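task queued by scheduler; priority normal; single chain, no ligands, no partner chains; default sampling; output format set to structure tokens
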Amino acid sequence: MTTYEDFQRATLFFDAKDYAGAARLLAPIAAENPGNRAVRELLARAYFHSAQLGRAEDAFRRLVDLDPCNGWAYEALARTLERRSRHGEARTYRNMAQAMGVDPADKVDVSLTAANLA
């Protein structure tokens, strides 16, 4: 399989709400292509939705580093920090996102079962 086909497969897993499965497929792609923002974003989102918050934080921070003008990445990082009960730190990133014209995100429904973590 090509990298593109692997990415497409991971996207199918993500769309099917198998976020942990998508993350497993995306992690090696991100390691091989560290500057690819699309891969990094989908990986961070997969980590976030599968409640792998430490990994999501790292991935969103990397995304912010890769694209410092991406207000959505700042908002996503703020959401991740809030889920980790780091509200003061999240406020800084939320303010950056709002300064870039990004409205605060709506609450995200996160469903996680033991099967997702297998």
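post-processing summary
- The chain has a mean pLDDT of 89.
- Residues 19-32 form the longest helix (14 residues).
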